[in-house]
């Protein structure tokens, strides 16, 4: 499993770096649409949608929603941050859901049942966050902020995995995701510190800007952890181990982008509010 995980990461990492820095805007957006389509296919499974045709319709609707959102926000720029705030509020709601979930006996009570709320939440959980990624990449000629976000989430995932695997003893959220530990969180915070220091120097920040950037990175990482736990809660409620098996050693596409989709709205909003996007 670990070998497959490493091989998959080694294949994906250069592709992502190339995509962020070199792909023309159209093809970058097309790549994001493909990711959203694959992730929403798996989200359909978590929503209790069964049948190949139904999942195709659902994934197509999610992709179409993102296309319409790109078109709409080209005309109505000011609505972008309103949508980001809606996505942020939804993710904060999911944080609360994870924190209050304490009934393992009811964990599979919704397994196999269609959840309209879960199905519709794909808009705020995937579509809006991935539009934020397109916006961050294509609105500003400097792609470093997007690259930093992706590398931050990936480095946090790597550190959390190895800290949890070799040092993990204390369960983080046993009713939601028994495999995750506090030691994994500590690993994530170590990665956050090093990544934010490297980022601050790379972006030539002042000391004050660097401290603020670290605080933003810390918030983004905490939210990304809850994004991962939120998907774990959906899977537990539907008696699903992995959202898919598209990526060897990693599970499905949704398993790879859940943290990123939770982090993106907070990150882009934070960059804007704190004056980093100029």
From TrEMBL:
**Localization:** Cell membrane
Q: Does the keyword NADP apply?
A: no
Swiss-Prot/TrEMBL GO biological process terms: CDP-diacylglycerol biosynthetic process
Where is this protein primarily located?
Answer: membrane
State the top-level EC class: transferase
Keywords assigned: Cell membrane, Lipid biosynthesis, Lipid metabolism, Membrane, Nucleotidyltransferase, Phospholipid biosynthesis, Phospholipid metabolism, Transferase, Transmembrane, Transmembrane helix
Recorded E.C. number(s)?
Answer: 2.7.7.41
Q: Give the residue spans that cross the bilayer.
A: 7-36, 56-73, 80-100, 112-133, 145-164, 184-203, 210-227, 259-277
Topology of this chain in the membrane? Multi-pass membrane protein
Q: Which terms in the GO cellular component ontology are assigned?
A: plasma membrane
Q: Which Pfam families match?
A: CTP_transf_1
Q: Which PANTHER family match?
A: PHOSPHATIDATE CYTIDYLYLTRANSFERASE (PTHR46382)
How is this protein named in the record? Phosphatidate cytidylyltransferase
Native source organism of the sequence: hydrothermal vent metagenome
